[in-house]
Design a protein that fits this description.
Homodimer. L-tryptophan binds at residue 133. This protein is mainly α. The chain has two domains: 3-186 and 297-326, HUPs (Rossmann fold), CATH 3.40.50; 208-291, Tyrosyl-Transfer RNA Synthetase, CATH 1.10.240. Helix content is 55%, strand content 7%. It contains 14 helices and five strands. It has helices at residues 16-29, 41-44, 51-68, 85-94, 99-104, 106-114, 121-124, 126-135, 149-165, 211-219, 236-248, 251-262, 268-293, 297-326; strands at 3-8, 34-39, 76-79, 141-143, 175-177. The strands form two sheets. It has a three-stranded parallel sheet. The chain has a two-stranded parallel sheet with strand order 4-5. Helix 4 (85-94) packs across helix 8 (126-135), helix 4 (85-94) packs parallel to helix 14 (297-326) and helix 11 (236-248) packs across helix 13 (268-293). It binds tryptophanyl-5'AMP. Tryptophanyl-5'AMP (TYM) binds at residues 5-9, 17-18, 21-22, 40, 43, 130, 133-134, 142, 144-145, 147-148, 151, 184-186, 194-196.
Length: 331
């Protein structure tokens, strides 16, 4: 079986972007591949969470992974900081990661813009840590959203350089993966970019959002005055709402509103109401499981320990072989 690795940073609650970009694939892939799904708590340190917040956020992703249907018996679910071998490999990979290429990474440039007072070295070397996450298990398929594509390219670059340096073909090449052929970018509700926490809470529909909150957020979503001519191309904000409808609604519903739009008969109030109701239907079973699982600390502890053990077994093997390739020898 091929090895699959992916992770999510614990920075709060999971939203529909995380779900359709990543988690929906995790759930399917676990039955076909050797899967490692982790909580990227080391990565989240770049933004300096308080110790109190950090633990809650990690717990939250663990709960939501389980609530979405990742089976801890089938896939390995673990917390990144429980596997110190990852940080060791990160150090080795940093020796093959060059300043110029790290500075050119889009996500680094975005962070320089969004957190100019905290441009730390961890942000710069973020892609090397991500490569370590994947290569520690020799992963080849990485289910992620479109925004991670460049990081995967860098993972291949660092792995290949390591191979060349040590004259080996030790690390395989890893590729971003989505079942739907194209990588996904789920839009937010602000009419502009992707759904994401840094774009603000009002822009995101969280898996844990209650029906009332979903209705409120969707009704406030950015739209416009409506089409003025038949068959007019859709402006970005409207296209985004249709794209969101595509992930939660039936083909009939989408076709219905598409037709109304083309005939200039669409009423955005009704359109949004339908979108909100379909999101509620999608979210509700997950939300209920989140509430259930989050009460069971014993179960969560058991899952985290089991995952750490399985992940470390795989990671120890890689580190042992990597040390030999590098030339560390016991005296
Ligand atoms: P993160 O925590 O920002 O996001 C987690 C996953 O959700 C996807 N995603 C989206 N997909 C589609 N549309 C959206 N609007 C959207 N928003 C988020 C992301 O693409 C990602 O798959 N660097 C990673 C975490 C990471 C990782 C790894 C991933 C660390 N090491 C190793 C894979 C393999 C990140 O910050 O994702």
């Amino acid at each position: 079986k091929e090895t699959v690795v992916s992770g999510i940073r614990p920075t709060g609650k999971l939203h529909l972007g995380n779900y359709f970009g990543a988690v929906a694939n995790f759930i399917k892939m676990q039955h076909e591949y050797n899967c490692y799904f982790f909580i990227a708590d080391l990565h989240s340190l770049t933004t300096h969470p308080t110790p109190g917040d950090l633990h809650g956020y990690v717990r939250n992703v663990l709960v939501e992974y389980l609530a979405c249907g990742i089976d801890p018996e089938t896939a390995t679910i673990y917390i990144q900081s429980d596997v110190p071998e990852v940080t060791e490999l990160y150090l080795y990979l940093n020796m093959n990661a060059y300043m110029g290429e790290l500075e050119r990474s889009t996500s680094f440039k975005d962070k320089v813009r969004s957190q100019p007072d905290n441009v730390n070295a961890g942000l710069l070397t973020y892609p090397a840590l991500m490569a370590a996450d994947i290569l520690i298990h020799k992963g080849v398929k990485v289910p992620v959203g479109k925004d991670q594509e460049q990081h995967l390219e860098m993972t291949r670059t660092f792995g290949n350089r390591f191979n060349r340096l040590y004259n080996s073909d030790y690390f395989p090449e890893a590729f971003a993966f989505n079942y739907s052929a194209n990588l996904v970018k789920v839009p937010g509700l602000d009419g502009k970019g992707k759904m994401g926490k840094s774009e603000g809470d009002a822009n995101c529909i969280y898996l844990a959002d209650s029906p009332e909150i979903i209705r409120k957020k969707v009704l406030k979503a950015v739209s416009d005055g409506g089409p003025t001519e038949e068959n007019q191309p859709k402006p970005e904000a409207i296209q985004n709402l249709f794209d969101l409808m595509k992930i939660v609604s039936t083909p009939d519903t989408i076709a219905h509103f598409g037709e109304l739009y083309n005939k200039c008969q669409i009423r955005y109030g009704d359109f949004k109401k339908q979108l909100a109701e379909d999101m509620i239907v999608f979210n509700s079973p997950i939300r209920e499981r989140i509430e259930e699982i989050s009460k069971d600390s014993d179960y969560l502890r058991k899952i985290a320990n089991l995952g750490a053990e399985k992940a470390r077994e795989s990671a120890r093997k890689t580190i042992k072989e990597v040390r030999e390739l590098i030339g560390f020898k016991p005296f």
